[in-house]
Amino acid sequence: MSRNPSKNAQIFLENLHSHKTQETIETLANLLEILETKQDPEPTEIRLVQNIYEFVEKFHILEENINNYSKEFQKTLPANKLASLYENIGVNGSIFRD
């Protein structure tokens, strides 16, 4: 397992778009639709609907935060810092900041 957190974040995001994950999400959406349209649902079914909505909301937040983290991590990579350094040379004529 890679020890690079950004790489793991990228792998997670890539796996979210896998066929298996999409099937799982579709199955959960179908279950939610069935439970929401059920006449006279049981208390357990009502709680399950609430749990699914909470899960989906938190999952979207998690996905967004991991995506943002991955982008921020990419900005701090040494290659990006080196590119930034060279950009400053063009502006200031020197790599050293005053």
Order of helices and strands: HHHH
Shape: elongated
- Number of beta-strand segments: 0
The largest β sheet comes out as: none
Mean pLDDT: 82
Radius of gyration: 22 Å
Q: Give the domain tally.
A: 1
Helix content: over 70%
List segments where confidence is low: pLDDT < 50 over at least 5 consecutive residues: 94-98
Distance between the termini: 43 Å
Number of helices: 4
SS class: mainly alpha
Residues in β-strands, percent: under 5%
Give your account of this protein's structure.
The protein is mainly alpha-helical and 98 residues long. It has one domain. The protein contains four helices and no strands. It has helices at residues 5-16, 19-36, 43-75, 78-92. Helix 1 (5-16) packs across helix 3. It starts with a helix and ends in a 6-residue tail after the last helix.
Brief overview, please?
By secondary structure, this protein is an all-alpha fold.
Which short descriptors sum up this protein?
98 residues, mainly alpha
